[in-house]
Amino acid sequence: MKRSLIQLLAALSCLTLLLTACGKDQATASISAQPVKTFQWKLVTSWPKNFPGLGLGPEKFAQYVNEMSAGRLTIKVYGAGELVPGFEVFDAISQGTVQMGHSGAYYWKGKMPAAPIFSAIPFGMTATEFNAWLHYGGGLALWQELYKPFGVVPMAGGNSGAQFAGWFKKEINSIDDLKGLKMRIPGLGGEVLKRAGAIPVTLTGGEIFSSLQSGAIDASEWVGPYNDLAFGFYQAADYYYSSVWHETGTNLEFIINEKALNELPKDLQKIVEVAAKAVNEDMLDEYNARNNQALQTLINQHQVQVREFPKDVLVALKGYTQEVIAEQVAADPTFAKIWQSYSEFLQSMRQYNDLTLKAYFENR
Amino acid sequence: MKRSLIQLLAALSCLTLLLTACGKDQATASISAQPVKTFQWKLVTSWPKNFPGLGLGPEKFAQYVNEMSAGRLTIKVYGAGELVPGFEVFDAISQGTVQMGHSGAYYWKGKMPAAPIFSAIPFGMTATEFNAWLHYGGGLALWQELYKPFGVVPMAGGNSGAQFAGWFKKEINSIDDLKGLKMRIPGLGGEVLKRAGAIPVTLTGGEIFSSLQSGAIDASEWVGPYNDLAFGFYQAADYYYSSVWHETGTNLEFIINEKALNELPKDLQKIVEVAAKAVNEDMLDEYNARNNQALQTLINQHQVQVREFPKDVLVALKGYTQEVIAEQVAADPTFAKIWQSYSEFLQSMRQYNDLTLKAYFENR
């Protein structure tokens, strides 16, 4: 009885103390009153762990989120194959095996023919044009709608900028030189090359070097000097073509399991959204700064020969691109709908940039 | 005595209860145990309140911070003149009258001759080139060092992209047409025009329209079609010159009182930093998307005549720019030090973009 009396008194007084204490800092207590719930997320990627550019983006994202949330949401990043193979990232997010991922939309074109529009379209928008379309031209809403049936929420996850045409074991002097060429190239760029008589092959980044070296493939695109130097492709192919055509400003993606995102409190949801936005520019900054530096290393230290496709090769590839897109538009109403928005914006941005950036590049 | 016994028992039991309760959620309690402190900041700007682009950037920043911090840091945004005149923003931050501001570094060139490098240099970097230099080329560290003696911390605060040459009451057919021209133009662009015989004038955005209309000035640059349409300049001048030369990718700034920033806990400091990074891209996205739309409105609804400077006018302006910069380098060791970093990076990015973006703009 004595014990229960003490407990009763204690409980009552404790309540009084709490009320008194609360009265003092009422405005702030309403924030701290709920018990703090913490969340641990796994983030799987399609890149080797800590790979320059592509792989550092999700690491920086995790760091931003951890620090902004003061540890309430911690995110652990996994390289391709550590938890989930590189090309199975989307399914893992959709099934809720892991909460989020970092990848490229064109890897999911088998599942959704329109997906490549959200990573790279041959002769498409540059990085800044794409970001403008995504965030102020209706692009993001269309992307969200595309992934919605899979319970996956997409956000822009960085941009590599304009990519080089790639590494070739022989010179390309005419469109006929592409005939029979086995080339690693994903997305619609591969479809375009097929029409030129080449044989497009899909490989993850980590598989390219050995395939080039063994002769299993004759050519490969990857990203640009910064990443290409890191993979050492100059040791496996003699000719490096700079001509921008197939990936003119490649958008990466953060993809999140919708249910996991909705389970976060509002402030953590916003932290995830804003961290992704910050990483989106950060990756482009990194690519722009490192690419030229790496190009100088490739040229001066590794005697790489940088080439440009002859004009008529680019004209032919552009023609095939129009054919490929027309077929996609005819075959898939979702592709047609998204393409209309994308191509109208591209047309408008092209006029504007011809007057501004293009004119400036010529005059400066 | 009875009362003090109860209090003693209560205190003891309360402690027990707290210890028991704490034991259960130890990991999380360490986060919530401290009383939550809230912060209210004022953010003053050099723009009219809610002005498209420039003025919406700080509004979006405040919204991000408020939501990510769940109200622990609330930021109220003020237009130019509401609390502080547009050209006194830096001093107000430095003196700690307010905690932070949003402005353009070239407004402080009287105080720091090198400041314009962090907003716009004639024939300088584009928006993406500048961001790459700032975040991966050493630019931000130099900027922080420049503002440090004033107790002010700078962060990139959005970019307007390449700006139009501006509005003119008469046609510019040769460099001689600039002689005697009274033109509103800030920063080093004004110094360059002075060498061409023009009379540069400094006015805040809100003062331009009436000055143009009254004939107090003959010409004015502002930003580009999106902002220029909003101010109705087409009603006050007949000729709109698109030629990008004086502001090739203008960087805005968030500036923060160092002491106020250091008083925030680490998580709120990171929230401020990441929100600024997210707004930095967001503003460029908005400008890119809205500028072309506004240009069409200016041309089609308001019969604005868009012109380009003759090539020899641009060549002459480029020559004067080299003179102005050489003088700044000779006069101010800080300008010289920052210019070396800027110009080396510009040179390197120019080579890279000639091979990629410039070639692509020509081929697509």
From TrEMBL, chains A, B:
Signal as UniProt keyword: yes
Gene3D superfamilies the UniProt entry points to: Bacterial extracellular solute-binding protein, family 7, Periplasmic binding protein-like II
Signal peptide (UniProt feature, chain positions): 1-23
Keyword annotations from UniProtKB, A to Z: Signal
Pfam families noted in UniProt: DctP
InterPro entries, sorted: DctP_fam, SBP_TakP-like, TRAP_DctP_sf
Record flagged with keyword Lyase: no
CDD domains tied to this protein: PBP2_TRAP_ketoacid_lactate_like
PANTHER family, per database record: EXTRACYTOPLASMIC SOLUTE RECEPTOR PROTEIN, PTHR33376
Protein name: C4-dicarboxylate ABC transporter
Annotated organism of origin: Thalassotalea insulae
